[in-house]
Design goal:
heterodimer, A: mainly alpha, two-stranded antiparallel ribbon, 4 helices, 10% strand, B: 5 strands
Chain lengths: 104, 166
Amino acid sequence: MSEKGLRLPSAMEAEILRLLIARRESYGLALVEGSGGVLKRGTVYVTLDRMEEKGLVESREEETPSDGYIGMRRRLYRVTGAGARALQALELGQAILDGAELGT
Amino acid sequence: MRLIRTTRYSDGTIRVYRVPEGEALTMDREHGWHAVTWDAETASQADLDDAFKGACELAEERWQRAEKVAFVERLPSRKRGPVRLAPGSGVLSLLCWLPMSKQSQDRIFRPLVADLQHEYIEALAAGRTRRALALRVVYAFRLLLTFGAFCGSATLKRFIEIWKLV
């Protein structure tokens, strides 16, 4: 998707972006567990799909499952450059609204 | 799948299943998981028969010692292709019948099922069989919730498209 049409992320999207930046790469359920109740198990995958469509995150399949696992491969998500900039813009806007002093 | 034996004992249950070709077995032993896990691609029928026999003998032996025996769990069949291992494989087959794009299946439901499977396997590996069983029930709700969210999102998207046209 073109970055021209990029909009600020919603609260849920921002939470996902923060978690992904902190962890570098993660999968859906781990994000839910790490969000402290902000993200819900029922909606996180739909949100991640939407974010991927917007170009905020990208995903890949886990290369090889952990030892002994023969289940399906998990999908790992990571933030794109556009995602990081969208979060930065949101936080900057929030800081202005909150009246925080901005660095020069 | 042919049920060989179901016996209730104290607070535990013995459930030993005949495992079809290509499937493997795991079994609870001393609160840890003695995994008789097979690579479904390479295991021969003889390997699987041996594994099954071993699991039955172990169940019997523990039964004789009046110990609690958990259950022998079915693992995946090679006939199902790359998507296998309960729970979830059946759900993915079912999704093919729903009006949903391949992309939605790949980007929403497959990651969900994969995560659920890993959570289930981790619970089994940690010897938390009751939690694992409870998870199987919870999965149905999570899948329904995700399907609900997917339908809601798709409807909203369609509505916005129509709105733009109008």
